[in-house]
Target: Pre-B-cell leukemia homeobox 2
Amino acid sequence: MLQQQPLTGNGPSNGRGPGVSGHPGMHSLNSVHQPPQHRSDGAESGLDGTENGHETRRDIGDILQQIMTITDQSLDEAQAKKHALNCHRMKPALFSVLCEIKEKTGLSMRNTQEEEPQDPQLVRLDNMLLAEGVAGPEKGGGAAAAVSAATSSGGMSPDSSLEHSDYKSKLSQIRSIYHTELEKYEQACTEFTTHVMNLLREQSRTRPVTPREIERMVAIIHRKFSSIQTQLKQSTCEAVMILRSRFLDARRKRRNFSKQATEVLNEYFYSHLSNPYPSEEAKEELAKQCGITVSQVSNWFGNKRIRYKKNIGKFQEEANLYAMKTALGARQGEDSPHTPNSTGSGSFSLSGSADMFLGVPGVNGEQSAYQMGGQHNGSWPGRSSPPPSPHSDRSENSD
DNA sequence: TATAATGATTGTTC
DNA sequence: GAACAATCATTATA
Model:
């Protein structure tokens, strides 16, 4: 009990002292406070003016007892008692004794050099929040990153801008909640620190409190509060991660390409059936025509090649259909050379492809290229000798 | 509602 | 890095 109630003497509202355990001091106090010279003026030092040294010790004991029990009293009583103690003529003597004890026991120096490095977890969370655009200046970094990731994989759907704005608005919500909470936290931390500092300053009237000690106490408070900050940052990071994963998952919500886009792609595919590997330029051209990305074009051709190869029979009808179309386009091209392809919308020439002349049914009686599954037997030169470009491919075939 | 079709993703190979 | 192959997940259709 003595240890828990050192010489604070500041009433019920007191916090405990910062490790200034009065206990060893209490014991030494009596011995320290008994030099002969003190006894000689014991009449002044005794509470009731007695000259008996024994009585003096009892008086000091009474004072200490009052200090110990001060926290059990009401605020008003305690304040009154505190004032009385502060004005007590014994106070300077007690204060100097406490200073002496403190110096002897090295309390003021204990644990003062514990400069902890910054919490690595906090650093990590800070970096993450900064990267996601939650902390630091608002610039939508995370959203941009997520969107660019989605774009690079060619997964942006036509309404990706909607998703993007949705993502951004949700991120900004998280951001604002985070900043509000952080502000609250900082305010609470500042308020509490100020309160404790005031308390310590108040206490410094009755016991020795060095500025170093106050600093140390502030550091302790900040450390305690930083765990709350870490929690806040952690939950914010989690929220961002969940949002992000949901946004990225949304890429899988595919939309079928438009009929026209599929038509354009199919026309290219079947008219280059002997070598359905569009070059980068051709892919870009197709992408532009279809209103999709180059990656989507690549995906489409990848899927198409595999699915065609796996089940040529199933695609026969489709092949014939497009053969007819391209043949018609070719004939039109003969009649009117300024309308080079069957769709009439593309800038690359399908009629120029030799593939389509490989056997358009009903045109020249030759076997259709689209019926020539057996010819390439579902396997193209492919990776072993990919065509340098469909332009060259086309020019090679047409030449 | 089951199934087919289809765009996207992932791991592997060259 | 491009293509392949398998697979996933969503959409369309019977």
Remarks:
- Residues 153-155, 251-252, 254-257, 262, 295-296, 299-300, 303, 307, 383-384 of chain A lie near DNA strand B (CB under 10 Å from a C1').
- Residues 118-136+160-249 of chain A form one domain.
- Chain A has a mean pLDDT of 66.
